[in-house]
TrEMBL record:
Keywords: Repeat, Ribonucleoprotein, Ribosomal protein, WD repeat
Highest taxon of the lineage: Eukaryota
SUPFAM superfamilies, per database record: WD40 repeat-like, Zn-binding ribosomal proteins
GO cellular component: large ribosomal subunit; nucleus
Single annotated GO MF: structural constituent of ribosome
InterPro entries named in the record: Beta-prop_EML-like_2nd, Ribosomal_bL32, Ribosomal_zn-bd, SKI8, WD40/YVTN_repeat-like_dom_sf, WD40_repeat_CS, WD40_repeat_dom_sf, WD40_rpt
Annotated protein name in UniProt: EML-like second beta-propeller domain-containing protein
Keyword Nucleus annotated: no
Family: Belongs to the bacterial ribosomal protein bL32 family.
Pfam families cross-referenced by the UniProt entry: Beta-prop_EML_2, Ribosomal_L32p
Protein's organism: Aspergillus cristatus (Chinese Fuzhuan brick tea-fermentation fungus)
GO biological process: translation
Length: 410
C-alpha cells in the first residue's frame, strides 16, 4: 500500500490499528495521560482518513516514528496492532462489481451503538453474539429475537479494552484477551456469562496476542509477539501441553481446525504456519503472502486454510499438501477478518476498505459485496442457519453490530 505524508486529523474515536510492527518508545504511563491533538504529520495509507483519540495521540506519534529497540512494553505492542475509524451504518448488499454475480442478502437488523468505541471482535454461539471493543465491557446480544436485544453487559471485563474474543462450539466457554495482556476465561450458565474464577488459570501466557479455542472448549491456543504458539488444557487446570516454535515474527492471528488436529498462525512478516497437534510438528510453512497476515481461518472440514492481510488478497491453501490452490482478489485495502459458512460453500471477508464480500469456494469468485464507504470493518461472522437461510454479522468502527440474512431465492 502506497504511503505519503499527509496532515493528521484527530477525533474522539478509538483508533488502535496495526500500522507498524516496530516497537514504540516510552512507558505505559504515557498512555494513561490525556494529550492534545498532534500537529505533526503522520504516514498513512493514501485515500484513508486517519483519526486517533486524544488518549492515544501522544503514543501514536512515537509509534509511527519509533526506532526499533530490544524492549517494548506489552501494552504498546497491543495498541500498535489495532486502529479504528468512524464508520456509518450501511444496509445494502450489491451485485459484485468484479464478477457481476450476485447472492442477495438483506438487512436483518442492528444493535446500534453497542459499544462507545470501535468493536474489534465478534464471537457467535447458537443463540447469542458476543462483542468486544476498546471499552472495558463485553456485550452479549440475543440472536433469537429479530430485534437483537442486549441480553447482558459484562462490566469491567478488561480495564483498557479487549481485542480478541472466541467461544467454543457449544457456547459454554469463551476466552477474551485484553490490551493489558490479561486472558480471561468465561463460562455460560443458563444463557448468562460469568468469569470462571474457580476454573483453570493460564500458566505462562507470556505476550499472547491472538487466541483460538477448540470446539469442545478444552484446548486453548495462543500466539505471542515472539512467534511462539502455546497450547493449554483447560480441563487440566490450564496446564501448558505444547509450545510450537516459529521463526520469531510477531504472531498476529490464529485458528484451530474444528477437529482439533491442526493449528494455523499468521505473522507480521507474511509467514503462515500449520502445526499438527497429533505429531507436534510443523508439516507446512506456507508462502504466498509477503506482507503482514491479519487473519487465518480453517474451512469447516479442515481441508482448506484461508489467509489474508495487507496484501489485499485471500489465499487458499490445501492443508493436506500445503499447495496454494486459489487467490481471491477484490478488496482494495487490508483484509481484517475471514469467516467460513457452516457448509464451507462460502467465505466471508471484512476489510479496511469498508467492504464485506461473500466468496463462492466452488467458483472462486465474489458473489456479493456489502459496500460501506471508505471505513474499516474489523470483524465478520456467519450466524447459525435459520431453516435454509444463512446470515452474517459485521462490526467495526461504527460501534454497532449489523445483521444480514440471505434473501429468499438468493
Amino acid at each position: 500500500m502506497a504511503l505519503r505524508m499527509l496532515p493528521s486529523t484527530m477525533s474522539s474515536q478509538m483508533f488502535p490499528r496495526l500500522l507498524s510492527f516496530s516497537p514504540a518508545a516510552g512507558q505505559w504511563s504515557r498512555f494513561l495521560q490525556s494529550s492534545s491533538v498532534l500537529t505533526q504529520t503522520l504516514f498513512r495509507p493514501v485515500g484513508l482518513s486517519l483519526t486517533i483519540p486524544d488518549l492515544l495521540s501522544d503514543i501514536w506519534d512515537s509509534v509511527l516514528r519509533a526506532v526499533p529497540k530490544k524492549k517494548v512494553s506489552h501494552m504498546k505492542r497491543r495498541h500498535r496492532q489495532m486502529a479504528g475509524k468512524a464508520l456509518k451504518d450501511v444496509k445494502n448488499l450489491n451485485t459484485c462489481s468484479g464478477c457481476g454475480q450476485s447472492k442477495q442478502y438483506l438487512s436483518w437488523g442492528s444493535a446500534d451503538n453497542a459499544h462507545p468505541i470501535d468493536i474489534f471482535s465478534l464471537a457467535v454461539t447458537d443463540k447469542q453474539i458476543l462483542s468486544a471493543s476498546g471499552a472495558s465491557s463485553i456485550q452479549v446480544h440475543s440472536t433469537t429475537d429479530l430485534d437483537f436485544p442486549l441480553a447482558q453487559t459484562i462490566e469491567g471485563a478488561h480495564k483498557v479494552g479487549c481485542h480478541h474474543l472466541v467461544t467454543d462450539g457449544r457456547g459454554s466457554r469463551a476466552i477474551s484477551v485484553g490490551f493489558g495482556g490479561e486472558i480471561q476465561i468465561w463460562v455460560c450458565r443458563d444463557g448468562t456469562w460469568s468469569k470462571d474464577d474457580a476454573g483453570p488459570g493460564i500458566a505462562d501466557s507470556g505476550e499472547v496476542w491472538a487466541v483460538a479455542l477448540s470446539e469442545n472448549g478444552q484446548f486453548l491456543a495462543g500466539v505471542s509477539q515472539d512467534g511462539h504458539i502455546k497450547v493449554w488444557d483447560l480441563n487440566a487446570s490450564g496446564e501448558q501441553i505444547q509450545d510450537y516454535e516459529t521463526k520469531g515474527s510477531f504472531g498476529t492471528c490464529l485458528d484451530m481446525s474444528a477437529d482439533g488436529r491442526l493449528i494455523a498462525s499468521g505473522h507480521e512478516n507474511g509467514s503462515v504456519y500449520i502445526f499438527s497437534t497429533e505429531t507436534g510438528r510443523m508439516p507446512f510453512s506456507l508462502s504466498g503472502l509477503v506482507k503482514p497476515v491479519r487473519t487465518v481461518a480453517f474451512s469447516p472440514a479442515g481441508k482448506l486454510l484461508a489467509a489474508a492481510g495487507d496484501s489485499k488478497v485471500i489465499v487458499l491453501f490445501d492443508t493436506s499438501s500445503g499447495e496454494q490452490v486459489a487467490n481471491l482478489s477484490g478488496h482494495s485495502a487490508w483484509i481484517l477478518s475471514l469467516a467460513w459458512s457452516t457448509t464451507g460453500e462460502y467465505l466471508l471477508s471484512g476489510s479496511f476498505d469498508g467492504k464485506v464480500k461473500v466468496w463462492s469456494i466452488d467458483t472462486k469468485t465474489c458473489v456479493a459485496t456489502h459496500s460501506e464507504t471508505e471505513k474499516a470493518v474489523w470483524s465478520v461472522k456467519w450466524l447459525p442457519k435459520v431453516g435454509r437461510s444463512e446470515g452474517f454479522a459485521t462490526a467495526g468502527a461504527n460501534r454497532s453490530i449489523a445483521f444480514y440474512r440471505e434473501a429468499t431465492g438468493g
